[in-house]
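Two proteins, back to back. First:
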Amino acid sequence: MILVLSGCAVTPEIDHLLKKGNTAYEEGRLGEAEQYLNRAVEKDQTIKGAWFLLGNIHYRHGRYPAAVTAYEKTLQYDSDHADAWHNLALTRMRQAGDIAESGIKALPAEKNGVKKLLKLRRELMLNDVRE
């Protein structure tokens, strides 16, 4: 079971939302998990585990800016959260790869910068595969 508690006392309502969100997340019902977890953090912004799971959900759906925000919220409340640091870095790498891809598509193939972007994209992809 994935724990999403903040380390401080939560109301029974928030506890219920966290348990429902956690169960839905574990069962792969990410849309449902997202709804419960969002409701929980609306009631208590300090629930770092909920923010972390929301970051994972956003990442899996390709919503990288939202994932970055959620991982940063996790770290705001727990700067020692190693997985949040890892996932934030991975998300930023994914964003960098997307930017490189956009540049490759936007620039004429003969432009000097395209070779640099191709090399960068290749390096980012290699780093992503190594993990």
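And the second protein:
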Amino acid sequence: MWLPFVTAAVGSFFGSVGGFLSALTMARRAERYKTTTDLMNEYFSIDFTHHRESLFQTGRRLATGDVDVDDIALGFWFPGGLCYIGETYASLTEHQHLTVYIGYIVRLADSVSRRRVDLTTLQNGLGTELLWEYGLVSKVAHAAARQADKAGAPTPSWPDSVKTVHDSVLAPRIAKQHRNRQEK
């Protein structure tokens, strides 16, 4: 007599748990999509283009020998020292543009490590774009970590973020491009 009621109660319980888990999964997916879209929109925004242009100019100066990576890196660890400030673009110095870009990389790495973004979308959308600035940023990261270690100062954490972005966004995209070239 009571078996139909127990069956209905158990069925409704498992149905509500399933519905809750489904709604939770959908909410997480929507949040990941929003975070991914926000990060990509920021990178491709007009304002952020100024930072990327400045990094390009700094990279050119580094390649021609007009500036040394150690001079740039002095401004990115504590206490550091007198660092390369550079030219002014869009009312910020090259050092300030690089600081903003590093802040973006740190936020991107944090979102990647906390699984708040869709990696496939980031790899396809930003993978090749981030390569343009990666050379400069990785050289500055290595120099800053080396200088801090040599001075006995705390090593900055942002070079780890550069490595995280490289390993999770850039390296898979590079490998995919390499495979595609080999298949042709």
